[in-house]
Design goal:
Elements: H1 22-37, E1 49-59, E2 67-75, E3 81-87, H2 92-95
Antiparallel strand pairs: 1-2, 2-3
Length: 96
């Protein structure tokens, strides 16, 4: 059985990766926290996430396509971790 989890929904004017810049960057990081904690590969499940920061990002191919974001995850206790997370956008019917 394949289980899917709802992903955060954000809006951006202009290119989608604008959410990786300015104030929207923090909103994206906050929106990712609950989703991230449910992922099988996430190593901090037993720890309380204090902050997620998008440290950097880079395009995978073209400028408006998928990107790789580096997430710095800080916990209430212990050493922070760094994760590489692929990000993309879905529009229209594909988004539903």
């Amino acid at each position: 059985m394949v289980r899917t989890h709802s992903l955060p929904r954000l809006s951006a004017n202009g290119p989608w990766h604008a959410v990786l810049r300015g104030p929207a960057r923090e909103h994206l990081a906050e929106a990712l926290a609950p989703w991230l904690a449910r992922q099988r590969w996430f190593g901090g499940k037993a720890r309380r996430i204090e902050r997620i920061e998008i440290v950097d990002d880079a395009p995978v191919a073209d400028a408006d396509g998928p990107r790789i974001a580096l997430l710095g995850v800080s916990y209430a206790e212990g050493t922070p971790e760094l994760y590489a997370l692929p990000l993309a956008v879905a529009r229209g019917e594909r988004a539903r």
